[in-house]
Amino acid sequence: MQHGFFFDHTMCVKCHACEIACKSWNEVEVGPRWREVVKITTGAFPDVTAMNVSIACMHCGDAPCRNACPVRAISKRAEDGIVVVDANACIGCGFCAWACPFNAPQLSALAGKMEKCTFCQTPGKERPLDIPRACEEVCPTGAIKSGSMTDLANQGRERAATRLAGAVGGGFPGLMLDAAARYGAGGGD
Question: pLDDT for 110-150, tens place per residue?
Fold first, then answer.
């Protein structure tokens, strides 16, 4: 079962607690950031829009970092979909970082190897997959959620439906007429 993250940028206050929790839990050295909060701005003054985004490895279905690694040091675990780096095989070339659209793999200056979010599955410090990740656990606004992609997709559908129903004021049933066609079947499938 594929695991991953859901992030709601409307709830992020850029407190950086997720970054600190990630570094602390996984004992990440100074320098690399397995999770980073950035501010994205668009527009030109005076019509500027900004949002905060907490970025980490997305444990992609077809991970570009894995495909770019010349020594196959990056793999995707079949049992949970988590993308991991084998430090013993990594040569620190950085091809994975260039391939990743999220800039997730980072070079460890101490080890000379690439490293990235392990979904709190760092060897010797594995968190059970049914409890929140360190970044999620400390997020004061609940902007970060982790879990199986099926559960996260269902939560996203519920949030969207609630938001749409509130905006239209009682139009919930009409809005959901084509939800299955547009967003796929809900529930536990």
Answer: 999 999 999 999 888 899 999 999 999 999 999 999 988 88
Tokens (6 digits) for 104 = 């997730």
Report the distance separating Cα 66 and Cα 33, nearest Å: 19
CATH number of residue 110's parent domain = 3.30.70.20
Could you tell me which residues are beta bridge partners of residue 52? Answer: 39
What's the CA gap between 90 and 105, in Å, rounded?
A: 12
C-beta neighbour count of 123 within 10 angstroms: 8
81 neighbors 71 (Cβ within 8 angstroms): no
Range of the domain at 85: 58-116
| pTM metric for this prediction | 0.78
Q: How many structural domains compose the chain?
A: 1
Indicate whether 144 belongs to any domain: no
